[in-house]
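Researcher: We're teaching a course module on how sequence relates to structure. For the next exercise, students receive a sequence and then see the predicted structure as tokens, so they can try to spot secondary structure elements on their own. Here is the exercise chain.
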Amino acid sequence: ARAGRRDRPLRALSARDPAASVVTGAAGFIGRALTRRLAGPGRPVIAIDRVAWNAPDGVAAHVVNDDAGLAAILAGVRVGGVFALAGGRMAQGGLAAHLIVNLVPLAGLLEAVAPAEGVRVVFASSGEVYGSAPAPFDESAPAVPRTPYGLAKLACEELGLSWARSGAGRFAVARLAVVYGPGQRGDMFVPSLVRALARGERFEMSPGEQIRDFVYVDDVVDALLALAATDAASGACWNVGSGSGVRLDQVAALACAAHAELAGTAGAADVVRGARAYRPNEVMDYRFDSSRFRALTGWSARVPLAQGLRRTLEWAMMEPSGRAAGGAPAPAGESATPSPEPPMTDVRTRDPR
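Model: And here is the predicted structure for the students to work with:
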């Protein structure tokens, strides 16, 4: 393990201490939000990523780049909930490269936590595993990924579910829709849009007829915690989306309205529909059916899109120039390199404009 400036060791836990929550990919967009929620007095949290970042106070943050380092950190620790958020989509590279980035880290994590009794793993997957299935997607739809990233995520799901069937521990899959919210950087649709609005820059997009299912990051954190707390969720895949499809041109209109309210006449929006062509093989309808997950846990997305966009804009408008844009190197889980492939639905989601 290579420790960064924020590396903080975890004190030895006694049998009377609560089990530690473990988050991999903790420096990413969802990972940061989840770690903040988990942190608190008397609640041990081990946060792991491959880059150094500013973890919340009280969190044991570690920079780890290999399986041996991960195993050493978790050795002898009472592990409870494990949130596997590490991985990503590469702008370039085929299936082998995506398996290295996604499947290999998950395999190392499962090996490291296997000795822990009663461990519960929640894996963040993507709706991209559904490929060209008709929307809205439900969990009974066949998984026929069309991209190396989708194939790698499906391979991760199968590995974890097989691991659970072997009796090593509990494993639940969260197939995430398009996650957005404050703190998101990179070139995905919503952060690119709010960044341009906050800076008064021109934003060019496609005609915007693509339908997407957007879910606010705090709602996603609620869903991940609900999966970890629900024994019956183990051994299965669960859709996590708002259940509502919104066209991208409507998203742009909502964001512009929020910007006008926040900035007044000082910041006129310059959003140009139709300035970009649709991508080849564009996925035009990307909606999720999360009714099965709602019936199991009672979870539902609570933050309306207009409210979530306003919160995201407020954050972007307070960010120093360049930070909200991803001008600094993107943390793990937020590649700043555009991808030519169809959109995916986890933290690195790139919705074509």
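Model: If you want an answer key for the exercise: The radius of gyration is 20 Å. Confidence is low (pLDDT under 50) at residues 1-6, 9-15, 322-352.
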